[in-house]
Amino acid sequence: MRQRAGSGAVVAPPNMESVSAPTATPGRPATSPAALGSFARVCRDALLAPSPAAMRRWALAGVITSALIILTGEAVRLSQSGLGCPDWPTCTAHSIAAGGTTGDPLIHRWIEFSNRMVTVAIFVVAVGVFIAAWQFRVAGGPRRRDLIWLAAAQPGFIVLQAIIGGLVVLTKLNPALVSVHFLASVALVAATVALYLRCQEGTAPARPLVPNLVRLSAFGVVGCVAVMMAAGTVVTGTGPLAGAANVARYHLPLEGVTQLHADIGWLLAGLMTALLLGMRLTSAPRRAVRLGWLLLVLIGLQGVIGYTQYFTGLPAGLVWVHVAGAVAIWITALLVPYALRDRGHVADAVPAAADAPAAIADSATAAAPARG
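Above: the chain sequence. Below: its structure as tokens.
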């Protein structure tokens, strides 16, 4: 098609074939190098210059992965795969991975080897948590030593866990070492929860929000949960699910240690009921009361699961759910004492002291009316 100009000359339109349009793959959005670079900067800043929100996310990742260590370890034990890799740090004397023949089924070797690989991945996350805590500043202030020590505990505990795990394998699942192995993971979870809560708080002295008797009751609940979990390791080391078919066990009556474990559970329920009553009478913070009710419900469910698994012959799947419930109870119990005192709050967006004048000037400029 031709267009006629005002002078009467015929002007041809531009050659449309010479203009190349960007092509895009159907169903796949185009990603520009600038977007990739921006994403890389965000990831770098989240690690090397974390904001309070980014630090919370790192700490939460530590809580999740530390709980995952317990649950994957229980999967190894309950599937009778504890000696699937009979050597350490390699799986067998001739193979790093789950190869060769060990006398155990191949699936046992892969389950145990996968647990070791999960531990390596979790260690990488723990190192990231430590780096973020080391780099973390609030409003351009100094490093938070309390956060650094709590973050350093995470890779430290995982290395300790690897060493204890090696001793567990080399001693053919000695029940005492298996118990220590589990309780070290419980301590790791406590450190990760403390880091998650402390990175949201200020550094002011703790201000109690309830009378000391109520706070002591909350610590008593935490201690009772720890004792109950320790007793649970004795029940495990006495019963049929000790990690493999032919391994040493505690020389104790299974009915007796199971009854002791149940009695501690009833004591815990009573202590939690008393704590809830104390929080109600002293007008405790609503968050603490909600956590208390959640903990009491979890304890009740745990009791139902515990009695069910005992009277149904300890099915492995139900025992795993029981362990998962114990981890949930432990984390919730740890949250309660922190909810009963106040140390201030770290804001999500606090300008550094050096940047404050510029931020104020930018705000004033934005608020000023435009001049023609």
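The longest helix spans residues 106-135.
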